[in-house]
Amino acid sequence: MPGKTFFVDLSRCTGCRGCQIACKQWKQLPAEQTRNTGSHQNPPDMSAVTLKVVRMKEVGKGDDFKWLFLPDQCRHCLDAPCKMAGDDIVKDAIAQDKETGAILFTEKTKDLPFDVIRGACPYDIPRQNAKTKVMAKCDMCNDRVLAGLKPACVKTCPTGAMNFGERDEMVAMAKKRFEEMKKTNPKAVLVDVDQVRVLFLTEYEPRLYHGNLMADAGGPGSYTRLAVLDKLLSPLRQARG
Ligand code: SF4
Ligand code: SF4
Ligand code: SF4
């Protein structure tokens, strides 16, 4: 398995959007028409030409307030529900790089039903080009990584919030930082660490951040996204013994 992994320390993210712009530059994706939604977040959502968006939430903290940022992107799930759903329809339209573990949307995704693939993703990541019907998302900058470079977003991050490397090293780094964080912030969480290749460490309780942060962001009593993920993965786990 091991492959590569990101570790994103949200306590160090200043919301500068350098990663969002670096992604556009490396991928040569155009700017898009946007609109004011009452937040500094811009654009308001991901799209087929915005593969990474820094989500912003303003929360009250006593008499003060705090910006909570989430540099949102594909998590490159270890057992990716989007790929499992896609393989049932067009085998390997959604591929996985054996070396890095990156989950890759190919041209063949145009033959997949978009609502099924988007609905399978616990983090609401897939988007679709309206003209070509090809689906789009972060590809881990797999071309750069296979050439020994870091992803463009990681390379540009000025604060050290974003880290990238071998999975074992990143998991160890994330867990060490998590232990430090818990001393001052007992509600900090290392999100979905055993399920994904993009490890977000929160400073506060995760529900304060944008709802796409965690796979179990569903409301009380509802089928949570984590439950759906577990349901999708259980036959695979049984087959593996
Ligand atoms: Fe964009 Fe590459 Fe970062 Fe993915 S890894 S968000 S494609 S810059
Ligand atoms: Fe697929 Fe969503 Fe996981 Fe990315 S985050 S690999 S799009 S299921
Ligand atoms: Fe946060 Fe780093 Fe992205 Fe700036 S470049 S928004 S600090 S993750």
UniProtKB/TrEMBL annotation:
Compartments (UniProt record): Cell envelope
Listed GO CC annotations? cell envelope
Which residues belong to any copy of the 4Fe-4S ferredoxin-type domain?
4-34
- Origin: domain of life: Bacteria
List, alphabetically, the InterPro entries matched: 4Fe4S_Fe-S-bd, FDH_Electron_Transfer_Unit
An annotated Gene Ontology molecular function: metal ion binding
Gene3D superfamilies attached to this UniProt entry? 3.30.70.20
Extract the Pfam families matched here: Fer4_11
Repeat found in the keyword field = yes
What's in the keyword line of the UniProt record?
4Fe-4S, Iron, Iron-sulfur, Metal-binding, Repeat
| Name the record gives this protein | Formate dehydrogenase
